[in-house]
Amino acid sequence: MADVNHTAFRPGTFLLVGIPGLEKFHLWISLPFFSMYIFALLGNLVLLFTIVREQSLHEPMYLFLSALTVADLLLSTTTVPRMLAIFWFRVGDISLGACIAQVFLIHFISVAESGILVAMAFDRYVAICNPLRYVTLLTHSVIWRIEIAAIVRSFCIIFPMVFLLLRLSYCTNRVIPHSYCEHMGVARLACTSIKVNAVYGLTVALLSAGIDVVFIAVSYGLILRAVFQLPSAGARRKAMSTCSSHLCIILLFYTPAFFSFFTHRFGGHSIPRHVHILLACLYVVVPPMLNPVIYGVNNKQIRETVILLFNPIAALGAAQPGCRQLGCFPAVCKFAVGRFCVPGGIAEV
Predict the structure, then answer these.
(1) Pick the residue with more confidence: 328 or 166?
(2) Where would I find the G-protein coupled receptors family 1 profile domain in this sequence (predicted)?
(3) Do the beta carbons of residue 109 and residue 78 sit within 8 Å?
(4) Fewer CB within a 10 Å sphere, N or C end of the chain?
(5) Angle at the Cα of 11 (from 10 to 14), degrees rounded to 5?
């Protein structure tokens, strides 16, 4: 029997089990995941449509944000639908090709998103530390080159993983204790040595996300130094408010990623497996869900543009003379007389 279990072959399918140890709660776990996924889809699509539709948002910060939105949509769509199929219908079978494709897409999108966050940090650095050269440095052609560079870098880093997995010979054990395919989860099913896979996975994490975090930290160190040198408290608050959304997204992206990475390698015996898997599942759905909310709440220009695009009453009010100049909320402004919005009272400037 032992010989059968260790017979090397290339299996037609693997079996994803969802969240091991919590199988009887899969239906209940699926409800918040489904809700978060729908919210992520709607939020990111609305944000992307708003940026594409509104000419005034075709600025470097928002163009980088649109790239981040596309990455969020791809990351959640690559993982969550299959995850829900496991939770709802216990359909965990996945072919070798589809599993390796999912490995590539998940890691490729994650590394590309990390590169986009670095680009967004550079954008904030130029805007605050060198504002007079902001328009000349970050032209549309430069932005496209930065985004293409992030994609090419991610492809070059992650594509070798495909060959590292295909070179392995797999045993009859084809059960993956996870909700989606990831590099080391698939590699551990092999009968042959996976030392190269382990070393490469660690190197990728340190040389992509690790270096990106260093660049982001340096950028925000220079930003903070420039902010504290501003003459007035109001100017300092305004400068930091432009960075708050990006800082929230950085923490939302890297905190669960590094926590899962380090606990998986150095705290595996002290933290239950289902906690690892649950955190990994949250990582692919929570940031995509919250990123549009963070920018929608903190960014006045996006918030007002969304209102104008999706609220006909607000758009009608905004079209009235004088209302926008006075700062009235468009949905309740009929027209402006002097310092007054009618109806709506005194304009809040």
Answers:
(1) 166
(2) 43-295
(3) yes
(4) N
(5) 135
Bridging pattern class, strands 175-176 and 93-95: unpaired
Q: Residue 134 corresponds to which tokens in the numbers above? A: 């902001």
CA dihedral 233, 239, 242, 246 (to 10 degrees): -100
Alpha carbon distance, N-terminus to C-terminus of the chain: 79
DSSP 223-247: HHHHHHTSSSHHHHHHHHHHHHHHH
Could you give the angle at the alpha carbon of 328 between the alpha carbons of 327 and 332, nearest 5°?
Answer: 165
Tell me if residue 20 falls in helix, strand or coil: coil
Whole-number pLDDT of residue 330:
44
Q: How many CB atoms lie within 10 A of CB 322?
A: 17
φ/ψ (deg, to 5) at 10: -105, 110
Q: How many CB atoms lie within 10 A of CB 44?
A: 23
- Cβ–Cβ contacts within 10 Å for residue 291, how many? 24
pLDDT of 270 > 80? The answer is: no
Q: Percent of the chain at pLDDT above 90?
A: 54
Does residue 103 have a pLDDT over 80?
A: yes
Phi-psi category of 289—alpha, beta or left, where left has phi over 0 and alpha has psi -120 to 50? Answer: alpha
36-45, 140-149, 232-241, 309-318: range with lowest mean pLDDT: 309-318
Q: Which residues contact 288 (CB under 8 A, 6 or more apart)?
A: 40, 44, 72, 73, 75, 76
Six-digit token pair at 85?
């199929």
- The contacts of residue 8 (CB under 8 Å, 6+ apart) are 169, 170, 171, 191, 192
pLDDT digits (tens, 9 = 90+) for 47-60: 999 999 988 899 99
How far, in Å, CA of 17 to CA of 94, rounded? 11
Q: What is the pLDDT of residue 11?
A: 54
Q: Where are the alpha helices (DSSP H) in the chain?
A: 2-5, 26-53, 60-89, 96-129, 134-137, 140-166, 183-187, 195-204, 211-228, 233-266, 273-283, 286-298, 300-310, 312-318, 323-326
